[in-house]
Structure formats: structure tokens, C-alpha cells
Amino acid sequence: MQPVKILEHFQNLPLSKHKGKDFLCVDEFNGEELMELLHLAAHIKQLQKLGQPFQPLMGKTLGMIFDKASTRTRVSFEVGMHQLGGLGMFMSGKELQLGRGEPISDTAKVLSRYVDAIMIRTFSHSYVEELAEHASIPIINGLTDLYHPCQAMADMLTIWEHKGRLKGVKLAYVGDGNNVANSLVLAAVLLGMDVRVATPAGYEMDAAIFAKACEYAQKSGGSMMATNDPIEAVAGADAVYTDVWTSMGFEEENEIRLKSFAEYQVNEQMVVHADRDYLFLHCLPAHRGEEVTAGVIDGPRSVIFDQAENRLHAQKAILAALV
Q1: Is 243 known to be catalytic?
Q2: pLDDT tens figures, 174-188
Q3: CATH of the domain at 205
Q4: Which residue is catalytic, options 18, 39, 72, 121?
Q5: What is the pTM of this model?
Q6: Given this model, what pLDDT does residue 1 score?
Q7: Are residues 180 and 284 in the same domain?
Q8: How many domains does the chain have?
Q9: Annotated catalytic, 121?
Q10: Distance between CA 25 and CA 144 in Å, rounded?
Q11: Is 311 a catalytic residue?
Q12: Which residues of the chain, if any, have pLDDT below 70?
């Protein structure tokens, strides 16, 4: 697609309706709206590859609050705002007055007078919801213990790029039913994918989120299944996804988790059950030799660095649409 046609397509995307919205979890948007954001991300990515500037956020500032360590989230949002013509401002939660007990409501109201949007990476999802309740500007969830919606959008963009479609694609997630799994599954079923989740007993997805995923799958024509058998999940899969066994905040459980997840390592013996052209995905950081073997994550079916790059493009689309 030529640059002029790309810009024409931007104008035809009904994105103005999203201005001022929050992005706290993917199912605040329906499947059609998520696909619009993915189209925007793909076009922004193509413009960047062509060296064509796209700067709709000239003069805008994104406040970025971090209570958790970050590589991809911080760099991709900061660079993304710069490329969109704006400024990304890093703020450590410990160094803000929040760290000394200022109410979230006061922080939300004050920052709404200074910046044009807030991205927050923190622990409690209710904390982000309270921030959004009191802010008059868009709030973007950069990660909570319950959801990781920006990662899910990058995941969908990556699978779409490599498979040429999302509807009907078979996605297997193997590992912990954590925040990454929650957002991944919701995005996938909203977009009509067939999802299989394999977790050890006691580490299943949040029950309410799983129930919503089943409901969304019925409406979109996708499907949703949970099992404790990783081979059942991976059989015939077009994409195989895993994440670390011990997420941030659960470090004290590490030794127990290593034992509980021992049969859930994505290795050469497991992926032989997937489709021969399967994709391997991982949100990173990865622990080779734990949740995945080096032979799989560094092998020819791995798209983890395309996936990491797509955090930048997916988040630029979210920013361009909301701010």
C-alpha cells in the first residue's frame, strides 16, 4: 500500500469515536473495534517502515506511572509518543506523592490538569480503575496483576501478520492462568479465534474472565476450552504461547511453581503436536530451560521479537485513537 493510500485509509477508519476513552482491558472494545485498532497499528507500522512521519499527538504529553519494573512497556510507550509527535514522561510510583499516601483521586485530578493521558503499570487492577474513575483524561493499562491488554494487542497484530487472518486461527496457551493469559484469551475470542488454555490444577484462569471468554466466543464464532492437559491444548495449534511460571509479585512461590509447572514446559516434544507451521509466542522476559526450551524459543517458528516490536506499533495505535 502506497503512503498516500495509507493516509486515506486512516481517514476512513472510524477512530474519532474512541477519543477520550480508557484502555483498561481489551473487552471494553468489541471485536470490530479491536480490529480497527489493529488495522491502524498495521498502517502506522508501514508508514514508519516507509519513513513517512505520522504525528497526530504533536504537543501532547503522556504521563507514565511505573510501580513495576519494565523494559518493553517503558521503552515502547516513550518511543511511541516521541514518534507520534508527543512526549512520554516517566514517573516512578515510589517517587510520586502516591508513595507517601496521597489519595489516588487527588493524583488523578491533578495529573489531568498537566498531561493528556496516563499509562500506568502497577499491581492492583482496582487501583487503575479508581484512577480512571477520577481522571478526566484517557487512562491506559500498561499492566496489572489481572490484565495486560497492550500485550494482547501486540500478540493479535503478530499472529495476524504471520497468518493473514485471526478468525478461525487455533491458539494454544500453556502455563500460568495469569494476567497475560486473561487479556490474550479475551482478545482472541473477541476476534473469532479458537482458544485452548492448559494450566496445572490450581493455576487456572480467573473464573469470571473465563466465563466471559466463553460468552464472547459464542458470539464471535470462535471457541474456548480449558484443560489441564497441555498436549490436548497444543494439538493442531496454529500458534503456541507461553509465559513465565512466576510472575512479578509471586516470587515467594517460585520453588513451588517450578514443581507444579514441570510438565508444562513448551519443548520440542510438545510442539510436535502443533501444526507444522505453528508460531511460537512469548511476551518476554523468558527463562530458557523453564517454561520453554532454547530450541523452541530460538527456533525457526519463534516470532518473539516481531511480537516485542509490535508492542510499539499496537500502543501507538491505541494512543493515536484515544488521546
Answers
A1: yes
A2: 999 999 999 999 999
A3: 3.40.50.1370
A4: 121
A5: 0.94
A6: 39
A7: yes
A8: 2
A9: yes
A10: 10
A11: yes
A12: 1-15, 99
